[in-house]
Amino acid sequence: MFYKSTRNSALAVDSATAISQGISADGGLFVPSEIPSITMDEIRQLSTMRYADRAAYIFAKYLTDFTEAEIHHCTDSAYNTKAFETDAIAEISHLFDGTYMLELWHGPTCAFKDMALQVLPYFLTTAVKKKALNKKIVILVATSGDTGKAALDGFKDVPGTEILVFYPEEGVSPMQKRQMRTQEGGNVGVCAIKGNFDDCQNGVKAIFTDPQVKQQLDQAGLMFSSANSINWGRLLPQIVYYISAYATLAADGEINFGDPINVVVPTGNFGNILAAYYAKKMGLPIKKLICASNINKVLTDFINTGVYNRNREFFATCSPSMDILISSNLERLLYLLAGEDDTQIREWFGALAKEGTYTVTDAVKQALQADFCAGFCDDADTKKTIHEIYEKYSYTCDTHTAVAVKVYKEYKEKTGDTTKTLIASTASPYKFSASVLEALEGAPSTLDEYAMIDTLAERSKLEIPAALAQLKNKSERFTDSIARTDMKDYVLRQLGL
């Protein structure tokens, strides 16, 4: 298995190179040269395994330059009850008839990013060792909230690495901000950006591909890599939990092996739903992939029209991890749908960078709509949905998951599709306690963050995650805030260059 760049199909590197680099030097994203298959007999076998072994089985199909022992070292180190609060790693809750919540937030930072970012440091350190790079790895991360903390936690004090995280100053929840600013570890750094997530993401990409910066790093024995889902090592673990969830549902008798399911994903940067698409292309019987956006509905508009246009008003919402107007992982999907035409990809994404918009061909639009449908939900309906779910089913969900539930409800009413459906539940409600509590009580709370958590615990009957409860007594280490134009200089200063 080799990896190509979405902007250079002639490129062929092994997975260790793709993971250690994070992004191709041409600015493209690494994609596998082929999508391996998985049969229903294999899924039956997976249904009897623990999560770490399911992951190792699927990883082996993509990481063909890793040994079996290396892969099991990665999965056994990442997926255990030291890191996760449940033996299942990812839990499945029954919301209502034929609808299931795939709870991806039982890891150390209470968000779905843990599912990938607990294993990525092991992937990366193994890859660097295999390639004998003899360099210190500098991880640059742009975050809309959850990736930052999950990456900081995953790479904390990992030998041979340093991690710098950038987040939008007013674009994350108070709990997300506190999680990052109190981060422990001698190799970590956090900085706010006066702007939105796209400013953070564009700044990181620009630093990655700056030849002058690369030369300075080379001379200092350093190299960049990424913990964002632009890194294949971040995206690959997300494929696992869709296949694993299907195996569990079938083993539990909720579906029969071979039955189709729908998958609904609250979506911002398109990585999570893209992973479900890869699972479908491997052979998982997914009927429809339902993309759920908040009011920053650039993806919904794109899927419905074939026109991607980031030239629009940006809204700060109660589902901040989805407050994104440039969805990086969409490039991987369009590369596949365009028949791996790297010239076309360079044209579209060049237009996006220069003009903020592009329009795909009718053939690509038709292929896109064959697998995906999309809808959106504003803040008022998000909170209304949280309240309704709580009243009807005594289930408390976070703001991002509520967006997915609302979009799915509208999809079901519109289409009459009764296929059993898996909804990706991406964060603990405690990470967005102010919004969730307001939804449950009908008015904004005047309590402080920790009193709100205690009140939410009384209402929801959910145990407060230990990692969040401990934040109250931690001091903030990182309070820097800079303009987006100062990111490059900030990184060089932090690295002593």
| Biggest beta sheet attributes | 6 strands, mixed
Total beta strands: 16
Radius of gyration: 21 Å
Q: Helix tally?
A: 22
Give the averaged pLDDT, no decimals.
95
Oligomer state of the chains in this structure:
single chain
Identify the CATH class of the domain at 91-111 and 233-460. Alpha Beta
Residue runs with pLDDT of under 50 for 5 or more positions: none
- Derived from helix and strand composition plus strand pairing, the structural class reads alpha/beta
Alpha-carbon distance between the two ends: 37 Å
Shape: globular
Strand content: 15-25%
Q: Name the strands of the widest sheet in spatial order.
A: 4-5-15-10-11-14
CATH architecture of the domain at 91-111 and 233-460: 3-Layer(aba) Sandwich
Proportion in helices = 40-55%
Which fold name is given in CATH as the topology of the domain at 91-111 and 233-460?
A: Rossmann fold
Polypeptide structure, described:
This protein is an alpha/beta fold and 497 residues long. It has a domain at 91-111 and 233-460: Rossmann fold (3-Layer(aba) Sandwich). Helix content is 46%, strand content 17%. The chain has helices spanning 15-21, 40-46, 51-62, 68-78, 114-117, 120-131, 146-155, 174-181, 197-208, 211-219, 232-251, 271-282, 298-305, 330-337, 342-355, 362-371, 379-393, 399-415, 433-441, 449-460, 466-469, 487-494; strands at 3-5, 8-13, 30-32, 91-96, 99-103, 136-142, 161-168, 188-194, 222-226, 261-266, 286-293, 307-309, 357-359, 372-376, 421-425, 481-483. A six-stranded mixed beta sheet has the order 4-5-15-10-11-14, sandwiched between helices. The chain has a five-stranded parallel beta sheet with strand order 9-6-7-8-16, with helices on both faces. It has a three-stranded antiparallel beta sheet with strand order 2-1-3. A hairpin with a 2-residue loop joins β1 (3-5) and β2. α11 packs across α12 and α17 (379-393) packs across α19 (433-441).
